[in-house]
Specification:
InterPro entries: MFS_trans_sf (IPR036259), POT_fam (IPR000109). It is a multi-pass membrane protein. It comes from Campylorhamphus procurvoides. The chain is mainly α and about 575 residues long. The chain has helices at about 5-25, 40-65, 65-75, 80-105, 110-130, 150-175, 190-220, 230-245, 245-250, 260-280, 300-310, 315-325, 330-340, 355-375, 385-410, 440-460, 470-495, 510-570, 580; strands at about 345, 345-350, 415-420, 425-430. The chain folds into two domains: about 40-135 and about 150-255, Growth Hormone, Chain: A (Up-down Bundle); about 290-375 and about 385-560, MFS general substrate transporter like domains (Growth Hormone, Chain: A, Up-down Bundle), CATH 1.20.1250.20. A two-stranded antiparallel ribbon has the order 1-2. α2 (about 40-65) runs antiparallel to α8, α4 (about 80-105) crosses α6 and α5 (about 110-130) runs antiparallel to α6. The protein is globular and about 70 Å long.
């Protein structure tokens, strides 16, 4: 037999043997025992995680959408107090995933903690109807009514319910459906941006359904029982978690943690202070003081990962004031809408339904941006726009939105006042149609469509894979800080102007001055980020080029290893007869 034919026989025998072995052992293929294959299992997990995510967001938006109306009408709060409560709840819901993630890493097991968070979520959403239930309308006999809660007791139960619900929301977001659970490790820049675009598109589509349906039910049909809908939605999320808890509970890698990041920063600060006082420098970055070879107690990898994360802190910082502007939708903009004419063709529009106007631009822009990204953003010619350009344009759009809100407020007060019934309460409002407020909602919706996915992409992409979850935690921390800063601004504006800049009766105050003040700060914030945006352009380009270059190299390396492995097995394979080896 010629050498070439003998070689072909050997190759065919080896390949047939390996194919039979792969058919028996490959875990990604269906088995005869009825178990799902690996791709089917991952698809099921992704669908379940997305379903829980949407159910949790449905609950969250259901609580937030009419909270100001509930606090002012039912609990008797002033406008600024209701706005502060709303923004603090949103901020707490952003911070609790970081807290729960730390507890899951250090103190409590993930399965046990997710059960605790599910119970807290159930408890919080179940207590909200207790506050809103109309006990005064239920009579036991002609002279007595069912025992009612006093205002003080209602407020205590209300705050406790919000706290427990926010803790439950934090557990679901941090443990069950973090972004790392979507298996984004092997995605390139183009795929990551596409994921974030469509992820936030689905979240906002869900919120649009909530703002239209739940807000109408809470406001018009049965306002006092409206909080039962967030309760039912939360129950759906918990049942979904219970059904597939074994497969959908994400287990992150243990080679990095939030405590390690804080430890590196603390160790570097301590060592840096000591060396500044007694020794000379000798390091290029102040975080290098935390390395073991510079007197610290952390390894080279841990410190370098923290350094890459620290480069994102300016990006996170400029998101604080932007998030404060976005929080005007459920606070300042909501009050403007509540004090405008909501009648449209004989139908009273829900106040929170105006939020849908801010969501429509995002639902339209995401497919458009996807077409742009697919054609030129990450093309080989590199002629597309950087994510930082989207962030700058989005932040400018947010500043412009607040400016328009200020001028619209001046315009609104020029209309005569009329009586309008909201939640069975007669209010004196402006006769200006609420649709005159649409431009400010649209501009802020455009800002969200541009800023949020781009910022998430940079936060996820510009750090090593091992600390991407920590990077998203820090982004959530700064976004939560933006919500609390918004509450702080409202408190300062009300206290510093004796209620003139954030009044209870809008026609008697100067709410437009608060908007102009916030817009001026946002313009400075936008210019500040624009001056440093080139840093992230360079980093993003480097990571993109690294991703492009790594794929052929990895394939070539795997090909070389396969050839060497094949040659080694071919020389000593037991499936070949001694005659074929000769």
């Amino acid at each position: 037999m010629p050498d070439a034919d003998r070689r072909d026989v050997q190759v065919k025998g080896f390949l047939n043997h390996m194919a039979d072995k792969e058919q028996r052992l490959l875990p990604g293929r269906s088995n005869h025992d009825g178990k799902l294959s690996q791709p089917e299992k991952k698809l099921q997990e992704a669908i379940c995680v997305l379903l829980v995510e949407l159910c949790e967001r449905f609950t969250f938006f259901g609580i937030v959408c009419n909270m100001i109306l509930f606090c002012t009408v039912k609990l008797g709060y002033r406008n600024y107090q209701a706005a502060i409560v709303n923004m603090c709840f949103v901020g707490t819901s952003m911070l609790t995933p970081v807290l729960v993630g730390w507890l899951a890493e250090c103190l409590v097991g993930r399965i046990k903690l997710v059960c605790i968070c599910m119970f807290l979520h159930f408890l919080g959403t179940a207590l909200l109807p207790v506050v809103s239930f109309p006990f005064e309308d239920i009579y036991i006999d002609r002279r007595h009514i069912l025992n009612t809660l006093t205002k003080r007791e209602q407020k205590i139960v209300f705050y406790f319910a919000l706290l427990t619900a926010s803790l439950g929301i934090g557990g679901i977001r941090a443990i069950v459906c973090p972004l790392s659970a979507y298996s984004l490790e092997d995605c390139g820049p183009k795929e990551l941006l596409s994921f974030f675009n469509w992820f936030y598109w689905l979240v906002n589509l869900n919120s649009a359904v909530v703002f239209v349906s739940i807000s109408y039910i809470q406001q018009s049909v049965t306002r006092n029982l409206g909080f039962l809908i967030p309760f039912v939605s939360g129950l759906m999320a918990m049942v979904t978690i219970h059904m597939v808890r074994g497969e959908m509970i994400y287990k992150p890698k243990t080679d990095s943690s939030l405590l390690t990041t804080f430890g590196v920063i603390t160790s570097a600060l301590k060592t840096c202070c000591v060396r500044y006082r007694y020794l000379s420098g000798g390091v290029t970055n102040w975080l290098d003081h935390a390395k073991e070879n510079h007197g610290g107690q952390y390894s080279e990898i841990q410190v370098e990962s923290t350094k890459s994360l620290a480069r994102l802190f300016p990006l996170f910082t400029f998101q604080i004031l932007y998030r404060t502007c976005v929080m005007q939708i459920p606070s300042g903009y909501y009050l403007q809408t509540m004090n405008s004419n909501l009648h449209f063709s004989g139908f009273v529009l829900p106040v929170a339904a105006m939020n849908v106007i801010s969501i429509v631009p995002l639902l339209i822009l995401v497919p458009v941006l996807e077409c742009i990204n697919s054609s030129c953003l990450f093309s080989s010619k590199d002629t597309g726009y950087s994510p930082t350009i989207y962030i700058v344009v989005g932040q400018f759009s947010a500043a412009l939105s607040v400016v328009v809100a200020g001028f619209t407020e001046i315009h609104r007060k020029h209309f005569p006042q009329v009586e309008q019934t909201l939640s069975e309460e007669v209010l004196l409002v402006s006769s200006m149609p609420c649709f005159h407020l649409a431009p400010q909602y649209v501009l802020l919706g455009v800002a969200e469509a541009l800023v949020t996915p781009s910022c998430a992409l940079l936060s996820f992409r510009l750090v090593p894979e091992r600390i991407r979850g920590i990077s998203m935690h820090f982004l959530a921390l700064f976004n939560g800080a933006g919500c609390f800063m918004g509450a702080f601004f409202v408190q300062i504006a009300h206290a510093g102007t004796q209620g003139n800049w954030f009044p209870h009766f809008l026609h008697e105050g100067k709410l437009e001055r608060f908007f102009f003040f916030l817009a001026s700060l946002m313009m400075v914030n936008t210019l500040g980020f624009w001056t440093i945006a080139h840093r992230y352009d360079t980093l993003h380009e480097d990571y993109t080029n690294e991703f492009r270059g790594s794929l052929p190299a990895e394939k070539l390396l795997k090909h070389k290893k396969t050839i060497k492995h094949y040659d080694a097995i071919l020389e000593s394979s037991p499936i070949l007869s001694p005659m074929e080896k000769t």
